[in-house]
Amino acid sequence: MKLFTSVHDVPSIKQFVKDALALKANPYAHQDLGKNKTLGLVFMNPSLRTRLSTQKAALNLGMNVMVMNLDKEGWALETQDGVVMNGSTVEHIREAAAVMGQYCDILGLRSFPKLQNREEDYSEDFFNKFVKYCAVPVVSLESATRHPLQSFADIITIHETWNPLRVGANDKPKVVLAWAPHVKALPQAVPNSFAEWMCKAQAEGMIDFTIAQPEGYELAEDFTLGAKIEYNLEEALTGADYIYVKNWSSYKEYGKVLTYPDGWMMNNDKLKFTNDAKVMHCLPVRRDLELSSEILDGPNSLVIHEAGNRLWSAQAVLKAMLEEL
Amino acid sequence: MKLFTSVHDVPSIKQFVKDALALKANPYAHQDLGKNKTLGLVFMNPSLRTRLSTQKAALNLGMNVMVMNLDKEGWALETQDGVVMNGSTVEHIREAAAVMGQYCDILGLRSFPKLQNREEDYSEDFFNKFVKYCAVPVVSLESATRHPLQSFADIITIHETWNPLRVGANDKPKVVLAWAPHVKALPQAVPNSFAEWMCKAQAEGMIDFTIAQPEGYELAEDFTLGAKIEYNLEEALTGADYIYVKNWSSYKEYGKVLTYPDGWMMNNDKLKFTNDAKVMHCLPVRRDLELSSEILDGPNSLVIHEAGNRLWSAQAVLKAMLEEL
Amino acid sequence: MKLFTSVHDVPSIKQFVKDALALKANPYAHQDLGKNKTLGLVFMNPSLRTRLSTQKAALNLGMNVMVMNLDKEGWALETQDGVVMNGSTVEHIREAAAVMGQYCDILGLRSFPKLQNREEDYSEDFFNKFVKYCAVPVVSLESATRHPLQSFADIITIHETWNPLRVGANDKPKVVLAWAPHVKALPQAVPNSFAEWMCKAQAEGMIDFTIAQPEGYELAEDFTLGAKIEYNLEEALTGADYIYVKNWSSYKEYGKVLTYPDGWMMNNDKLKFTNDAKVMHCLPVRRDLELSSEILDGPNSLVIHEAGNRLWSAQAVLKAMLEEL
């Protein structure tokens, strides 16, 4: 693997999930693979889970890790070509990325959208230029439009916890991505990416996938092709085995927080419609705004387990990259 | 050892000091113990000595280390339960701590008091919740009310430098904790912790312990039980073998800098009352405000030696935790 | 090697370049040398290339690395002696440096000039005090007046790319340091250091060295002794094999950005005067202000190759220090 920015970089989800669970069973079996290899983690935005899990994954594989918090360094990068750099940007991404590629065998990059200009964010201009100029394999640690290490951990978690022998079980797990309220305008990266992975998992026969959101919160079609779309949360939840709760800002009225009807916070009342569904969230979660404390502290929550699986999704990706270095 | 937050987690100071000095004599003898074990260091407040010494201690034991400066990341944690999280806190400590516990075998946490509300600070609510929710062993890197790695290094330093054969030596070293001036309101964590360790060391027959401070600067009794309390600095210093200089804000008028009589800065004039006492300070020290330059640059100062021992106190604690993982 | 702050710490440039290129050919051959040795990297100012390349160099040698971003920590250090520390500085450099020396076998320090007071900056007071009080070997990661790891990488790059068999080649490469415009007042550290290394390389018979700058931008003579000084850029460039482009603020009118004639930005038009010269820059570079994009993106640019060699200059220095620990 030379690049990991979306589900399109993964030939088979089923096989990749198997690889990750084999690593979970035997985390330190491949330490020779990473010997004298260096992972550089470049953050243009803050990170807790992604940073720690990816760092630990690399250490498990015997790699060295160097972290650069460019957001904290005031190291403003220029991305436009042909600009006379007499302003506030101190270095062009052409040089900055190329230089980091000189010292690292694999680079990870986190770069959030600005949520100002949809075309700019969805072009993934910054991310793509970084990939182009650094000249080494790149792992997305969340880009403007996707968070594939998170989505991979999500499908690992579903696969791992699904019990087909449960009384009254569906043939395949019914997975619902359910929009939830928030106070801030959040990117669509996590739901885009989750949808994209679930649509492919559905195509591979692993799950059934539904997205529920209020009017105006539809995601871009590129990411949701094949998903069942619902505007009525109760109908969407009926018979669900997994609910993936997440807020996002509007794609149509780009980056806006639109008004929405009451009743989109996930709580135990809504669980009644489900098949005793497990509840997931990528974290950080706003308690009692997106998701009720009673769920988060109860037996249906998978959120910590899911965060733990971030380690194995990162380790599977890094292992696949190391094997082709 | 599953938890290291105070002297109460230590069965015998004497034995623990011996363990630390054995590590100092042979720092790399236990590198297999830490193989594939990860220490996460979580800072809610800045750190220089604690961070470097604990990181080095872990490396000596063969561990990996991941550092999170949450104070720099603007990652404000919610600690109250039942709050609708529609404000400035981005994640609840229940999730944040649990997630960090997923990626680390041992966690270290630094969390200062706010010095606004004594009950809140002395409840150690933040620290205790972190311990509860992270579900892995925790080392205090200084909490609202204690700094046990510092105090452990202090008793190591006293034990290591005490010469009972010196002409005119006391049976046991006389140790004096002496309040000193400062321009800022500082926590009581270091003096609380030092007093607690010295009272236990006194109970184990290792030292005699006296605390000297101006009126109004008395520490909480829980920490000082068994200590001799003095308000006259010269009387306290008479016959002292070790002076531990430190400023703290008032516990009674909580967090306040009260007026105090002249003469509490430690200098060579005051050393005359002592038994040629060695002078200690946890650092950072305000020169010529808390402690005179003539002492710091002279033969009686132990402050750099003492800071060096931070490494061995951390290594002894981590070793004891690794042995029970 | 106990100290690396300038070319004066290097007995023979020729030999040191050979050592570095041997490491480049065989990066992991000396991993036992760094086992259980710790490098502390202390940054008073931001760093990208220096931090990553030095960290990677240490890892290649089997060392552990601990990074301290003191500029980000608000850890303001006092450097003056005899000051009552009742102001904003929280720790004296005497203690801070000594403590870091307790936990590290080798320290690296970056400390920029303030560009306010020439005498103060050129005394290297901060750097020298750090060296004095930390009591372990110190590598300069750029000081007020020099950037020797950069200059060492520069001469490695020239040596490595010079082809004496090229038709029409000079006996030795003609190297020109060429001032270029910028919007900010930059230190003289990089050009000082480059000049100092090139003058010594010239004395060792490796190159011919010329400096070109507008009136008022002359560097301090200590650094340029032996160099040919030109005020006419075209004349300086005539027959050049290497051009080292760099902005600096005035030394004479200290720290000032003076007016200068048009035509000092390096571009393809100016390359015509040269012997198809290779173009170098320490980076970060302001595109189309210091150096044209056409050069940076064309075949004459060595800037990324040169940045890559930062790794081997750092590794050669650390290896020389480890050998004498």
From TrEMBL, chains A, B, C:
In short, the EC number is 2.1.3.11
Which residue ranges does the record assign to the Aspartate/ornithine carbamoyltransferase carbamoyl-P binding domain? 7-160
Cite the binding residues for carbamoyl phosphate.
Answer: S47, L48, R49, T50, W75, R110, H147, P148, L149, Q150, C282, L283, R310
Instruction: Give the organism the record lists.
Output: Pedobacter polaris
- Which InterPro entries does the protein's record reference? ArgF'-like (IPR043696), Asp/Orn_carbamoyltranf_P-bd (IPR006132), Asp/Orn_carbamoylTrfase (IPR006130), Asp/Orn_carbamoylTrfase_sf (IPR036901), Asp_carbamoyltransf_Asp/Orn-bd (IPR006131)
Domain Aspartate/ornithine carbamoyltransferase Asp/Orn-binding as annotated: residue spans: 205-320
Key words, A-Z: Amino-acid biosynthesis, Arginine biosynthesis, Transferase
- Entry protein name: N-succinylornithine carbamoyltransferase
- Give the residues the record marks as binding N(2)-succinyl-L-ornithine: E142, H182, K246, R286
Its family remark reads: Belongs to the aspartate/ornithine carbamoyltransferase superfamily. SOTCase family.
Which GO molecular function annotations are given, in alphabetical order?
A: amino acid binding; ornithine carbamoyltransferase activity
Q: Which HAMAP family match?
A: SOTCase (MF_02235)
Q: Which GO terms describe its biological process?
A: citrulline biosynthetic process; L-arginine biosynthetic process via ornithine
Q: Which reaction does it catalyse?
A: N(2)-succinyl-L-ornithine + carbamoyl phosphate = N(2)-succinyl-L-citrulline + phosphate + H(+)
* Assembly with partners or alone: Homotrimer.
Its pathway is: Amino-acid biosynthesis; L-arginine biosynthesis
What function does this protein fulfil? Catalyzes the transfer of the carbamoyl group from carbamoyl phosphate to the delta-amino group of N(2)-succinyl-L-ornithine to produce N(2)-succinyl-L-citrulline. Is essential for arginine biosynthesis.
